[in-house]
């Protein structure tokens, strides 16, 4: 694992920064756990406790979460560039302080929606910041591996917490006991972020000083246009990220309801809800590393197409074993895509404006939660759960083909790193 030292003495690389990197992996696991406390229980709360019969109404908490998180992602990148990474991370945990209590004892569905607004801000600030901080620490050569560890920690924690809260709910009821786990995560994460995590902004500045392309004075609007539309790799990554999290909204909000209509118990639904993010999370430790060796584009294309096949299997199946296979395949497909898309952003964006590019990408990606909640809810209300799932499968396949056609390979090949590297021109020079 290569280590480089800047003229100012700051060392880039995984080995040189292993202690802080490992701490940030733990913090991001706690970020994922905050999300995991909802994955099994909240769809069932909407039906059993608050008696929301319309799917669109029942999925409003995902819409609130996704829209808020997407917008917060955008500002998280800009704020971390301006004020530093650590203050943004701490702010994200402070904002989440009321969330477990609101979920556990909120007297109406409006309280659940409000809790998910706060959770969206929390996730946008904390997850974005841990991503940026890990990219800062490791430098360019192990970016895929770093993102694999980051996303693996978060989504393994999502899976473990989803299974744990499902088991708790099966024995103690849907509220309040499952959400006490989230309260414990919150206290631990706030303490670690305040007293143990160190600022990493100077690492990004050190990398920028060594970058072969000098930093240009670009505006956030120019970066947003480049990431969203004009650069083929960045824009292809942004649309794939949106569709990927649209899938996740489907798995979060619709799959448990489908499983319940076929008579599965809360504990069985909890197992299925955990299986997909568990495979997704653990797999990213391999796929992030793999993308550093074989490139990004083909892994993303294959992952989106595999997700489409897995979602189609969920729609076609009617038994626990078949759904379990589908969840495993969906997890593998997502593992191929998730850290690799972030690595694409890190490959192309200049270190001087990379945090803002990550924020724009994550705006699109987590906007997929909101789009997925609306699309799946409307289709499920009009045509049924199965039709909604088939529609999302077709959309996911289309996204994978878009990556195959539009994205260029972004990872510098070890055999000819200088020739293969593609640093984009300044945003004001992109057609």
Report a brief summary of the structure.
This protein has 431 residues and is mainly alpha-helical.
Overall description:
GO terms for molecular function: transmembrane transporter activity. This is Major facilitator superfamily MFS_1. This protein has a single domain, classed as MFS general substrate transporter like domains (Growth Hormone, Chain: A, Up-down Bundle). It has 431 residues and is mainly α. It has a two-stranded antiparallel sheet with strand order 1-2. Helix 8 (143-172) packs antiparallel against helix 9 (177-195), helix 8 packs antiparallel against helix 14 (266-294) and helix 11 crosses helix 12 (232-253). It is 79% helix and 1% strand.
Q: What is CATH's topology name?
A: Growth Hormone, Chain: A
Task: Indicate the CATH architecture.
Answer: Up-down Bundle
Q: CATH class, please?
A: Mainly Alpha
Strand count: 2
The SS-based structural class is mainly alpha
Radius of gyration: 20 Å
Tally of discrete structural domains: 1
Put simply, the count of helices is 19
**Percent range for helical residues?**
over 70%
* CATH homologous superfamily designation: MFS general substrate transporter like domains
Strand content is: under 5%
Please, what is the average pLDDT?
A: 88
Uncertain regions spanning at least 5 consecutive residues: 414-423
Question: Separation of termini?
Answer: 37 Å
**Silhouette:** globular
Main sheet overview: 2 strands, antiparallel
What order do the strands of the largest sheet run in, or round the barrel if closed?
1-2
Instruction: Spell out the helices and strands N to C.
Output: EEHHHHHHHHHHHHHHHHHHH
């Amino acid at each position: 694992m290569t280590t480089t030292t800047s003229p100012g003495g700051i060392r880039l690389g995984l080995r040189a920064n292993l202690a802080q990197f490992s701490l940030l992996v733990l913090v991001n696991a706690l970020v994922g756990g905050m999300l995991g406390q909802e994955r099994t229980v909240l769809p069932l709360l909407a039906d059993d406790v608050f008696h929301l019969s319309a799917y669109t109404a029942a999925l409003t908490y995902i819409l609130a979460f996704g829209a808020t998180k997407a917008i917060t992602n955008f500002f998280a990148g800009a704020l971390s560039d301006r004020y530093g990474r650590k203050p943004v991370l701490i702010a994200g945990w402070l904002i989440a302080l009321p969330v477990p209590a609101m979920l556990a004892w909120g007297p109406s569905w409006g309280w659940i929606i409000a809790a998910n607004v706060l959770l969206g801000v929390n996730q946008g600030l904390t997850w974005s910041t841990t991503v940026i901080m890990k990219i800062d620490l490791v430098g360019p050569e192990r970016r895929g591996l770093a993102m694999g560890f980051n996303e693996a920690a978060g989504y393994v924690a999502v899976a473990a917490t989803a299974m744990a809260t499902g088991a708790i709910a099966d024995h103690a009821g849907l509220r309040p006991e499952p959400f006490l786990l989230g309260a414990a995560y919150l206290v631990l994460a706030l303490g670690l972020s305040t007293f143990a995590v160190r600022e990493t902004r100077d690492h990004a500045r050190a990398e920028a000083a060594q970058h072969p392309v000098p930093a240009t004075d670009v505006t956030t609007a120019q970066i947003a246009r480049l990431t969203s539309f004009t650069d083929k790799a960045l824009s292809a990554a942004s649309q794939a990220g949106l569709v990927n999290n649209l899938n996740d909204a489907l798995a979060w909000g619709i799959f448990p309801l489908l499983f319940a209509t076929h008579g599965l118990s809360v504990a069985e639904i909890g197992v299925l809800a955990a299986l997909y993010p568990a495979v997704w999370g653990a797999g990213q430790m391999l796929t992030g590393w793999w993308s550093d060796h074989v490139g990004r584009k083909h892994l993303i294309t294959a992952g989106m197409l595999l997700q489409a096949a897995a979602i189609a299997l969920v729609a076609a199946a009617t038994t626990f074993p078949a759904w379990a296979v589908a969840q495993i395949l969906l997890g593998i497909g997502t593992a191929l895509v998730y850290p690799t898309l972030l690595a694409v952003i890190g490959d192309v964006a200049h270190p001087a404006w990379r945090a803002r590019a990550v924020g724009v990408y994550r705006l699109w990606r987590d906007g997929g939660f909101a789009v997925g909640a609306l699309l799946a809810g409307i289709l499920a209300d009009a045509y049924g759960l199965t039709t909604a799932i088939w529609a999302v499968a077709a959309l996911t396949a289309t996204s994978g083909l878009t990556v195959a056609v539009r994205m260029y390979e972004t990872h510098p090949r070890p055999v000819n790193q200088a020739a293969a590297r593609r640093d984009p021109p300044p945003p004001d020079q992109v057609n």
